[in-house]
Design a protein that fits this description.
Elements lengths: L4 H14 L3 H8 L23 E9 L6 E8 L5 E5 L6 H16 L7 H9 L8 H22 L3 H4 L8 E9 L2 H14 L3 E6 L12 H4 L8 E2 L2 H19 L4 E5 L6 H11 L6 E3 L10 H7 L4 E3 L8 H7 L5 E2 L3 H4 L2 H13 L3 E2 L9 H13 L6 E2 L5 H6 L5 E3 L2 E3 L12 H4 L13 E2 L9
Parallel strand pairs: 4-5, 4-12, 5-7, 6-15, 7-8, 8-9, 9-10, 10-11
Antiparallel strand pairs: 1-2, 2-3, 4-14, 13-14
Helix pairs in contact: 1-2, 3-5, 4-5, 7-9, 9-10
Bound molecules: magnesium ion.
The site of magnesium ion has 5 residues, from loops.
């Protein structure tokens, strides 16, 4: 039997189909027309050309006093780069060293597109892992690669994460004051600006000003600058604070409070039971990470919602806690757990356990990091609320394109990538400092309180 070229082509095509090459099959049948005009491949089908990492460096800057660390990744395409937040503000110089001494050597020449592969390989490249220094360094790299991918695709990063689940990011503001009345006035001011969520603290974390002259200072123990906290005064003050704010500001505002892990678990249970009637949105970090087992008693004793995880380094710390429904909101510092890639995994895990997001977003997260929060917040279904700060003009000059706060909502700009840039010339005017940080807090007898 005489064969012809079409028959050969069909047999070849069937072999290819057997090998699972549908694209090849379509291509072959598409060529049967002897006089078909050659068609140009449409832009969407061309894919992206290979692109390599050319350099990686750290940029430290402190426009408002708090150390911020940024990773800048340059590519082999002239002018195409990405930036990411690597801010471990208390030990910024160590992160800068990790990036400049090790990350460039590891990354240069590698493909910019394979973010997961880069994350996994750098994560184990030092063998020991999950510390705050290297996790922040890898976060800077990770966010910068997402920034580059968005720029290459011509899309904001939230589009690459699945598109918007909401039009903007509902944010909370910080109200403080020395008396409950002062705090209530502050809350009302934010409500008038359009905020629906406000965190309330009386005299900062632990209400230190309520403590009297501590005995350890009289005894010459510790340093004169060490702080003193009276736990009993604090746990008695918080319910009175909530009562006054509810009385003055009503029920149409969600109230949050951060305990900063500073009291004993049993004292926390008793305090939270007294807060139930004021309907808090969340109580943050009720115990230290060393006391996770106490959540069983907390959950059994009170219906107050909890946010937890600010001090978590290892994303695995969320797994058992979520499976046991220990808390309601994910409170981790995105750069501390390693960037957008692990944060998305934690967020998606939370969806299955009805745990929502509440990323840590104070002034010692760079605007690049805040943008990363917002892109995730826009995309995930199980969003809770986002901590916000109002960026100063000084900060906005260093980081053009920072997220905008309007009527209690955060908006990212629609530029491709994370949407934020860094002006390195201006950033250099504000060098980082090496202050060890003022986290020495003691009981009356001088015992250290964590943190
Ligand atoms: Mg906190």
């Amino acid at each position: 039997m005489k064969s012809n070229s079409a028959g050969i082509n069909r047999r070849n095509a069937l072999r290819m189909m057997g090998a699972g090459s549908a694209a090849g099959l379509l291509g072959l049948f598409g060529s049967f027309g002897a006089h078909a005009a050659p068609r140009e491949t449409p832009g969407y089908a061309r894919g992206m050309p290979p692109l390599k990492i050319k350099s990686v460096k750290a940029i430290g800057t402190a426009p408002q006093g708090a150390n911020l660390v940024i990773v800048k990744v340059e590519t082999t395409e002239p002018g195409l780069y990405g930036i990411g937040c690597a801010t471990f503000t208390q030990r910024a110089e160590v992160v800068v060293t990790a990036i400049n001494s090790y990350m460039g050597d590891f990354c240069v020449g590698k493909d910019v597109d394979n973010i997961e592969d880069m994350w996994q390989s750098f994560f184990v490249s030092s063998y020991w892992r999950n510390g705050p220094v290297l996790n922040n360094a890898i976060s800077g790299l990770d966010q910068a690669l997402w920034d580059i991918k968005g720029k290459r695709a011509g899309m904001p990063v939230y589009q690459l994460l699945g598109g918007k689940s909401r039009f903007a990011v509902d944010a909370y503001a910080h109200a403080d004051g020395k008396t409950p009345e002062e705090v209530a006035d502050h809350v009302q001011k934010y409500m008038d600006q359009g905020f629906r969520y406000v965190r309330i603290q009386q005299g900062g974390y632990g209400s230190l000003y309520l403590a009297q002259q501590p005995d350890f200072k009289d005894a010459g123990f510790g340093m004169p600058t060490d702080d003193f906290m009276d736990s009993n005064a604090y746990v008695q003050a918080v319910p009175k604070l909530f009562k006054e704010v509810r009385k003055r500001c009503g029920e149409d505002v969600d109230l949050l409070h951060d305990t900063h892990e500073r009291v004993q678990p049993v004292d926390m249970i008793n305090m939270c039971k007294r807060l139930e009637e004021y309907n808090p949105y969340w109580i943050e970090d009720p115990v230290t990470p060393e006391n996770m087992e106490w959540f069983k008693q907390l959950r059994a004793s009170t219906t107050v919602p909890f946010a937890m995880g600010e001090l978590f380094n290892n994303p695995n710390e969320f797994v058992g806690a979520m499976a046991n429904h220990y808390f309601d909101y994910i409170r981790c510092h995105i750069s501390q757990v390693g960037g957008i890639t692990p944060a998305m995994k934690i967020a998606r895990l939370g969806e299955f356990f009805n745990v929502k997001s509440g990323w840590h977003g104070p002034g010692d997260v760079s605007p690049v990091g805040h943008a990363a929060h917002c892109h995730i917040d826009l995309a995930i279904w199980n969003f809770g609320v986002q901590e916000s700060v109002d960026f100063s003009d000084k900060l906005a000059e260093v980081f053009p394109g920072s997220p905008q706060l309007k009527k209690g909502y955060l908006y990212v700009n629609e530029a491709p990538g994370l949407g934020v840039d860094i002006n390195e010339t201006v950033a250099a005017k504000y060098p980082i400092n090496n202050h060890a940080g003022k986290w020495t807090l003691r009981k009356r007898d001088g015992t250290i309180i964590r943190p």
